[in-house]
Amino acid sequence: xxxxxxxxxxxxxxxxxxxxxxxxxxxxxxxxxxxxxxxxxxxxxxxxxxxxxxxxxxxxxxxxxxxxxxxxxxxxxxxxxxxxxxxxxxxxxxxxxxxxxxxxxxxxxxxxxxxxxxxxxxxxxxxxxxxxxxxxxxxxxxxxxxxxxxxxxxxxxxxxxxxxxxxxxxxxxxxxxxxx
Length: 180
Fold this sequence. Notes:
Oligomer: single chain
Number of strands: 0
Strand content: under 5%
Helix content: over 70%
Number of helices: 9
């Protein structure tokens, strides 16, 4: 793609996929590189190239490796989001664990794009709450380690950070006083 001759690069990519038809990592990499290229150079996108990218991504969804499946689903989600095909974008969220905050963030974005603003706000607020709880637990763990090491200066610093976090999230005076 850097040489400027897109068709040569595209044919080479297609040849590599044909030569290694079960290499899902290669399919994902090629599809993501082409998709990114098309974002910058949309005039080179054709039905043929689009079909090839989608085929590679759909095949990568069949991988036994979770990272490859999620990468393919993420790329397809973003493609459909750019195309304003929100229902199709939503269908790729099933590849993300329900415990993955990225899934909820992507769902919230779809809610906002489709006018379901109350649902979007609720999902974003849930993400903030979980993020805050995670940060509080990590600060508590770091505080415990600092105390075990006898580093009271660091422990005090962590208590102060916890208090600041609680203030940012407006969790009330009790939570401020209960810092770590």
